[in-house]
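Progress report, Aim 2. The chain analyzed during this reporting quarter is listed below.
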Amino acid sequence: MQYLLGVDLGTSGTKTVLFDFVGNVICSKTIEYPLYQPANGWAEQDPSDWWNATCDGIKYVITKSGIDASEISGIGLSGQMHGLVILDRNGIVLRNSIIWCDQRTDKECQQMNSIIGEKRLIEITANPALTGFTASKILWVQNNEPEVYEKCAHILLPKDYIRYMLTGEFATEMSDASGMQLMDIPKRCWSDEILSKFNIDKSMLGKIYESPDVTGKIHRRAAELTGLREGTIVVGGAADNSAAAVGTGVVRAGNAFTTIGTSGVVYAISDDVSIDIKGRVHTLCSAVPGKWTLMSCTLGAGLSLKWLRDTCCNEEMIEAEKLGVDPYVVMGQLAQKVMPGAGGLVYLPYLMGERSPHPDPYCRGVFFGLSASHDRANMIRAVMEGVAFSQLECVDVFKEMRVNVDDMIACGGGGRSPVWRQMLADMYGCSVSTIKADEGPALGVAILAGVGAGIYDSVEAACDNLVSKKSIQTPNLSTRKVYEDYYELYKKLYTDLQPSFKYLSKLPK
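Predicted structure tokens for the chain:
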């Protein structure tokens, strides 16, 4: 028997999943680690936590499943996007990784626009200067920690650091590298113009592969630490959302998915490069060779519900423990008892600033319309609706770009909630489905590993055989009408509050 291994390096933890060749889960293990916030709006993680979680996760699934490591045909890596990992010439990490949701780099984004020009930056990288992307983080280190940058010999993304630790290779792949804002996206290569003007030596960056390509093999030390067989191939893999697209079968134009994890993402495939000149959504390279993607990112999606759970929902957590269920199940049941509109309560999910469709590091979360008649059920429903409204805003941008969505897959932790899925169906006005295999990114990169190992002919062919739908929820037209009115208010609130958000950022904390 032969198997494939998918390793998904997320923000809250690393999930390692062992699959057989028809996509069945043989064994799975998730290991969590902390997020550090040294200052307001900052977000960092320790790459050694990722590596330890990877080693322990791989050892667990091999041991627990009882397989022989020689039966693993290939390994795929998925990871959180945009994080900056910098190493010295000996491969030693020089500082904690500045990760995707960090908002410290507003001045560096202004610097990028000044150096390159806003229009030219979008022409090359297909995106405006963004605080979340990697380029601005590199400039921040140059500007604020020059003694660290002087020692920098290698710049990697989170999953590509794991690749280095497994194989000794400095490499990346199209879908993740295109979120660094250092690539020429239409040409699918590093941009010499960008690198030169940002004073980044190209030798610091890894070689770019297509996602199913073999990038290296497990070396002896990694084999000792993980239990893998030395020489096992590691393919390019994919950024978390591109991997989730493969894992949910979104590999052709016309299909899309919404994932609600820590962040919220709407993701669609395009056969051609399509760029939003206003910079509201991202154009990136796809994990499917020769294709591109449109992608949005709401920074505080599932994070908003987690914040509410941890801050206000102790009773629901106690009740969930008694029932032996996840607290989000109890919270969802409460939300379901509240009518659409949450009793006149509207939530803006900007806990970490925002990226799509408002590239704004200053905006913050808001409950609007709060009254003495509201309770936690109203707040839970309002948070869920606010996150769903943020996804709808991004779908509207896709439509402006003539990328229509008529079939939506829901995934991520939020995709498990029937209440949230129904909200999305009602707001989008199209069916929202789940798939039978709920392993998202891990399955996606396992499929890529299977293509790299020659088991599957192509990414598309593999998905046709391995990915099938489980449930379908259709829109309720009467509810959709209620949401249309609240949606107009939701959009107006950001516009009205934008100057106040910036003013608040200047006040002492």
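The CA atoms of residues 153 and 259 lie 35 Å apart. The radius of gyration is 22 Å. These observations will guide the mutagenesis work planned for the next reporting period.
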